[in-house]
Amino acid sequence: MTNPAYPIDGSVKPEVTAFFDEPTNTISYVVKDPGSNACAIVDSVMDIDYAAGRITHDSADRIIAFVRDKGLICEWLIETHVHADHLSGAPYIQNALGGKLGIGENIRVVQDTFGKIFNEGTEFQRDGSQFDRLFADGDTYTVGGMTCFAMHTPGHTPACMTHVMGNAAFVGDTLFMPDGGTARADFPGGDAGELFRSIRKVLTLPDAFRLFMCHDYGPNGRDIRWETTVAEERANNIHARDGVTEEEFVAMRTARDATLGMPKLIIPSIQVNMRAGKLPPADESGKTFLKVPINSL
Length: 297
What we know:
Elements: E1 15-21, E2 26-32, E3 38-42, E4 47-49, E5 54-56, H1 58-69, E6 73-78, H2 90-97, E7 100-104, H3 107-117, E8 133-135, E9 140-143, E10 146-152, E11 161-165, E12 168-170, H4 192-202, E13 210-212, E14 227-229, H5 230-236, H6 246-257, H7 266-273
Parallel strand pairs: 3-6, 6-7, 7-8, 12-13
Antiparallel strand pairs: 1-2, 2-3, 4-5, 9-10, 10-11, 11-12, 13-14
Helix pairs in contact: 1-2, 4-6
């Protein structure tokens, strides 16, 4: 049974083009309104050679070239959450293509939490003002003539949102492919019980709805995949299929998370992504630096 508060319309079938970033196992998407040339870009990537401290934009440039080649108009750049495993390319793409940048309204919680961890000064705004739009649960927006909406799906982070565009839902890290299970819930502000309830919320969408992942790691050596359906997840997700109780899920997730190390790019990613994909401000000499908090994560 679907939630009547959401404007669900499975008759609208957007054209979804995926871009896989191998270094971070991230999938970004260009989502085209079937009735116009309008599009949204979801979870873009900015490249970093962390050891060298070097930023490049090859991943974002591929998306920009695709949008221009197809004659598309970028109306939205969507971040499903504050990513801990890659840097956002959204402001770079926005500068080239336009569009509004949006994220969940609980970005303010993330900014407050990590503003303290990274000892940011009062000049770092913790009100989400770096973004053009802060989405609350059930908020709607349009891409061309296509009505889209945001579902608040916390647990991995407080600001996680699933964005539903026609019959396609972009779940961020709320779910992985059925054989990949689910993402961790042990970051600051994460909660395994909340994650379970968020997953069940996503899986109340119609069975035929397409679900698009933010990450895939090719478990058991299979090829990388990023698209599944609500029905497939409900039947086969190894962590959260139908019949798994919240108590079982929380016990599994808690034990599993205790074995995981920190993502290798969490330190640069959070500092950049909580600023809407922008680097920290330069110092008086014009140089930009990232901080490494000791024993804080």
